[in-house]
Fold this protein.
Amino acid sequence: MPEKHLLLRHRDIPDIHELEVYRKHGGFEAFRKAVTQMTPDEVTEEVKKSGLRGRGGAGFPTGLKWSFMDKKNWPHYVVANADESEPGTFKDREIMERNPFQFLEGVAIAAYAVQANRAYIYLRGEFWQVAAWLDRKIAEMEAAGLLGDNLFGTDYSLRIYTHLGAGAYICGEETALLESLEGKRGMPRLRPPFPPSYGLYGKPTVVNNVETLTNVPLIIERGADWYRTIGTEKSTGPKVFSLSGHVNRPGNYELPLGTTFRELIFEHGGGIPGGKAIKAILPAGASSAILPATDEVLDTPMDYESVPKVGSFLGSASVIVVDESVDIAWLVRKTIHFFKHESCGKCTPCREGTYWMDKLMEKVMAGQATPEDLEILYDVAKQIQGKTLCALGDFATMAVVSGIERFKQDFERAVKALVEVGV
Ligand SMILES: Cc1cc2nc3c(=O)[nH]c(=O)nc-3n(C[C@H](O)[C@H](O)[C@H](O)COP(=O)(O)O)c2cc1C
Ligand code: SF4
């Protein structure tokens, strides 16, 4: 059977979650190759050369991040971010549940590259079954001599542990995650210093998303040059797009970075149910600036460079499709209510701003907002941008600002109704 998937390999290879099956298909040979034939710096260099960028949202170059690890401060740690809390994102879960060893091999190679002897997988609290499943897979690796001391007859040792959060969206932010992993309340840290110089327990730490790490065995096994043949020049490799909302076939789709929204939504997702028109797209879950579904947007390649050019971000590529029946003001109200609830409260613009945006959106939806209220709402959102300790503050403003700017009619409807009755 031709190889259709590189990350969601379970769709082509039955039972790849079994260690025996995974190894039969070359599993753990990349880890062996790294540990026995490559220096840690060579591994980092290969990942750098591949152009792999973080799949957790920011698209930061992975090899570059590894190369920032402070080599004067030990021990080093690797932390896999399995918090997966962005509304509309459900790719990491499928990888961990169905192709767990490729992910765990990626964790192991990353750990070797930065010479960490301990790696942690931080999972959102709701993923307790996934954590138990991974614990079993880790135990199988230990029994097979793929984790533990003196791996492959070398002096390199590694142990991997899972850790469950308690269901807070902010714990997906890497420094809040580290605080939570240390047993503290999950609140972002002031940066700099960044985790590669001051991370877990104050030690140099690499934090990478589950999908990012799942790419790593492929790069080591087949080489950076091969990897670069997939995707675009600056956004290399395959990507799992989580498609949801008003589409006939929602689900995870593994496609090269640079695939257009149109291909994802209409070819793979089967188009919009009931023959309705597509109205808007949220390319990065609830954190997205909402895009009107124009031809220009639909023909935009989904990569880290192209989506910003049409006014949004790719983020973790959780593409939510919105049809013509949806009032965008209603959608904005949903997102702002979510962010108000999830704001950790550490910094004032986000804590107070999300509260006020929520209050004002409540008025809009109740048909009680005045034109001044809309102006204040827009102004509050603009005032938050760039003034918060972590990106959640900015995320909270994306739907508000883009909604008012690009779908004004949906906001004005409520205000107009008020004016018409003479208020
Ligand atoms: C509010 C907030 C929530 C986040 N949630 C997640 C998450 O659930 N999973 C994730 O991998 N990254 C999340 N991130 C991004 C992480 O901070 C970090 O950039 C990422 O784990 C780095 O891994 P990568 O370079 O492999 O993408 C979030 C960031 C912010 C600001
Ligand atoms: S921006 Fe929001 S979530 Fe982030 S630190 Fe400030 S209050 Fe907390």
About this structure: Residues 54-58, 60, 81, 83-86, 170, 172-174, 207-209, 212, 390-392 surround flavin mononucleotide (ligand 1) (CB under 6 Å). The CA atoms of residues 135 and 162 lie 7 Å apart. Strands lie at 76-82, 116-123, 159-164, 205-209, 238-245, 251-256, 278-282, 291-292, 318-323.
